[in-house]
Amino acid sequence: MTSRRIPLYLTITDKYNILMMRDRGEIRQTIMEKYGVALSTLNTIYVKSEEITKQYGLIMGLTRRRLQDVDKVVYQWYLRCKERKVQMTGADIQREALEINEKLNGHPRFKASITWLRGFKERYNITTADIRQNIQAANEITAAEAFKADFNRFLQEGGFTLRNVYNAVYTTVMWKAVSENSCIFNRAKSTGNLEMCEDYVTALFCANATGCHTVA
């Protein structure tokens, strides 16, 4: 007894991506395996390529307008916070953007990522100094918590773990030094050539956050 193929629902974006794979020269079998579609379905998508391309363009245009609306509302909120001297960080802007996007029925995949925040600040000429000036009496604990939240979000969005996080410091290791009370030191000091009295190397120490990998 043969099993029936379970019909799959392909979005306009899926169909458009299939057309892009075709244009890049991908073979039919590869496309069918990736999207789990039959040959007849694939042929139908190819036949309707012009219609699918137009629909995709309309959707992307609507998505861009929605994101622009979110940007405008978030910027108005930012200006109100600035006027009232309300405490604000990058994480606060991201959280507000998510709430506004939900209220405006914006794009369901909008995540207010760090990349979006960077672009938002560039679009409205907002610098890190501007945000800091709006924070009144922010203590070190608040700043540390904000950084931790931003950093954890960055790790999650990038798919990184603590094994990928490294910290490096360097120091000077003095392996030869002449006493300041010696004649050699006084002669070197008078001639301005103190290098003859000392020698050192610069050492770099580096390890990841979990401590499983060190470099020295």
UniProtKB/TrEMBL annotation:
Annotated compartments: Nucleus
Protein known as: Tigger transposable element-derived protein 7-like
Coiled-coil segments on the chain, per record: none
Gene Ontology CC: nucleus
InterPro entries, per database record: CenT-Element_Derived, Homeodomain-like_sf, HTH_CenpB_DNA-bd_dom
Keywords, sorted A to Z: DNA-binding
SMART domains (UniProt xref): CENPB
Matching PROSITE patterns: HTH_CENPB
Major location (coarse): nucleus
One MF term in the entry's GO annotations: DNA binding
Span of domain HTH CENPB-type: 58-130
Keyword Cytoplasm: no
UniProt key word Ligase: no
Domain of life: Eukaryota
